[in-house]
Each structure stands twice: as C-alpha cells, then as structure tokens.
Amino acid sequence: MHVNESAENYLETILVLSKRKPVVRSVDIAEELNFKKSSVSVAMKNLREKKHITVTREGFIYLTPSGREIAEMIYERHELLTLWLTRLGVDEHIAAQDACKIEHVISKESFEAIKKHIK
C-alpha cells in the first residue's frame, strides 16, 4: 500500500487534528499545514478517490481503515524519530523537522532497528 509523501503528510495531519478536534475539515488542514484551501481540496479529492478518507456532506473528513493505517505508521515514525534525534542532542525543533523528512524514506527494516534500539 504505497502512497506518495504528500498523501502521507495529509493523512498524518488528519490523524493529528482528529486527536485535537471533534471533527476535521479541509480548512483545518489548510491552516495546520499553511497551505491554500484549493491545494487541500485537490489532495482531499485524490485521497477520497483512493479510499483513504471519507468526506461527509458537511465537509467532515474521516480516515478509512487504510488511511488510518498509513497515518498511524507515519505518525509513529515521526514521534519515534523525533525522540531519537532529541536524545542524540539535536534541538527539538530541528529534530521534528528532520523526522518529518526521514519518516517518508526510511525502510521498515531500518525503522524497526531504531525502534528496537530505543526501547
């Protein structure tokens, strides 16, 4: 189940926002990512077509099981890589930025090795 980095970022953002808000809308995603609403609308259409999200008539966005699986994988990678980098002495802000880049390209094998080493 491969999706591109942009889709992974959107799905992760929906997951994060759903932990903070009762409902997630396109405008919330646009504000969170500092993107134009039109860009988010196109991305939501693509995610809907790939069946990673559903959107209600009211515009509420929900992750489907496949979307949730991808979002949780990326979120776990982000959290763990940020923790690892900060433990290595990297500034928290920089660690979070770097984790955001690494989380999309690291192999499952390498991530599991880091995860095992940290815990």
In which order are the strands of the major sheet placed?
A: 1-2
The outline comes out as globular
Which class do the helix and strand fractions yield?
Answer: mainly alpha
Cα gyration radius (Å): 15 Å
Number of helices: 6
Which blocks of ≥5 consecutive residues have pLDDT under 50? none
CATH-defined superfamily of the largest domain: Winged helix-like DNA-binding domain superfamily/Winged helix DNA-binding domain
The CATH class of the largest domain, by name, is Mainly Alpha
Major β-sheet, in short?
A: 2 strands, antiparallel
User: Could you spell the SSE succession in H and E letters?
Assistant: HHHEEHHH
Query: CATH topology of the largest domain, what is it called?
Result: Arc Repressor Mutant, subunit A
- Average pLDDT reading: 94
Percentage of β-strand residues: 5-15%
Measured between the Cα atoms of the first and last residue, the distance is 27 Å
According to DSSP, the number of beta strands is 2
CATH architecture of the largest domain: Orthogonal Bundle
Number of domains: 2
Write a brief caption for the model:
The protein is 69% helix and 5% strand. It has 6 helices and 2 strands; from the N terminus they run H-H-H-E-E-H-H-H.
Describe this structure in words.
The protein has helices at 5-20, 26-33, 37-49, 65-87, 92-102, 108-118; strands at 53-55, 61-63. It has 119 residues and is mostly helical. It folds into 2 domains: 5-65, Arc Repressor Mutant, subunit A (Orthogonal Bundle); 70-118, Iron dependent repressor, metal binding and dimerisation domain (Diphtheria Toxin Repressor, domain 2, Orthogonal Bundle). The chain is globular and about 45 Å long.
